[in-house]
Amino acid sequence: MNIVLLGPPGAGKGTQAKRIEKALGLVQLSTGDMLRAAVAAGTEVGLKAKAVMEAGKLVSDDILIGMIAERIGEPDCKNGFILDGFPRTVAQAEALDAMLKARGYKLDHCIEMRVDDAALVARISGRYSCKNCGAVYHDQTRPTRVAGTCDSCGSKDLLRRPDDKAETVAARLKAYHEQTAPIIPYYRDHGALRSVDGMADMDAVTGELSKLLGKPIAAV
Ligand code: AP5
Fold first, then answer.
1. What pLDDT, in 10s, does the model give residues 54-63?
2. Less CB within 10 Å around the terminal CB: N or C of the chain?
3. Which residues surround ligand 1 with Cβ inside 6 Å?
4. What is the pLDDT of residue 83?
């Protein structure tokens, strides 16, 4: 099964993708995580992406399309994947169609997570995550059980993203509305789009996704 999760920054794509990955044995392909890994490793892509990401803008289509085309060619993607953060422009959506077709893959589900802008700012500004395993937390809605320690792996290396500052969040929302929202009608026209109320609490969103995908997904 191949899934695209669409939605603005902070909609909960990463949170839900991790639950789906665990329940259905699919691979989560987060372009944000891939870019952050490239920045941390100081690769050529990372050097190009760093300033763009910190400004809350979109990294170029060429880089992202190349990155995903290469990644979905890896063996672990044969059993299915969840795209989280890609596509983000109409050019990326068209390129995705072409690369799936070339590999004989199809897109089984495209699900939009709808959340109001005001809620997104509160979610992003309270977010922190585990550097070791990637588990995502929130100061108010999902704090770690023991302060400063990851529930999943016990690491004490918890961090906040540099692009989660208030001024950068505003730029990311602007980029979403101007460049990413136009792909919603693209998928609606292709008959593939469904949506969930991303304003609901995390477990309720997981329940809705479970119904749409027709598979049980544990709220963990
Ligand atoms: P990326 O890492 O993809 O960031 P994003 O899309 O802005 O999404 P986020 O990771 O911020 O949010 P999310 O929807 O995953 O929410 P989460 O589950 O963490 O991209 C970063 C940057 O990389 C971009 O700005 C761009 O520069 C570049 N980039 C990436 N892909 C690109 C592409 N394809 N093209 C060009 N550039 C690209 O949840 C957020 C918080 O809310 C958490 O604290 C969580 O605990 C909490 N939460 C989750 N669900 C709920 C709920 N239902 N109720 C209450 N709280 C909740």
1. 999 999 999 9
2. C
3. 7, 9-15, 31-32, 35, 52-53, 56-59, 64, 85-86, 88, 92, 123-124, 126-127, 136-138, 141-142, 163, 172, 201-202, 205
4. 98
Residue of the nearest CA to atom 41 in ligand 1? 123
Separation of CA 14 and ligand 1 centre (Å): 6
Confidence of residue 173 (pLDDT cuts 50, 70, 90): very high
User: Considering only CA atoms, which residue is closest to atom 6 of ligand 1?
Assistant: 9
Give the DSSP H/E element, type plus range, for residue 120. helix 117-125
Q: For residues 198 and 12, is the Cβ–Cβ distance under 8 A?
A: yes
Nearest Cα residue to 203 out of 7, 4, 19:
19
Cβ contact 166:200 at 8 Å: no
Active site residues per annotation = 13, 88, 127, 161, 172
**Residue minimizing CA distance to atom 27 of ligand 1:** 53
215 C-alpha to center of ligand 1: Å?
A: 24
pTM score, whole prediction: 0.94
- Give residue-wise pLDDT tens across range 81-120: 999 999 999 999 999 999 999 999 999 999 999 999 999 9
Q: How far apart are CA 52 and CA 60, in angstroms?
A: 9
Closest atom of ligand 1 to 138 CA is 44
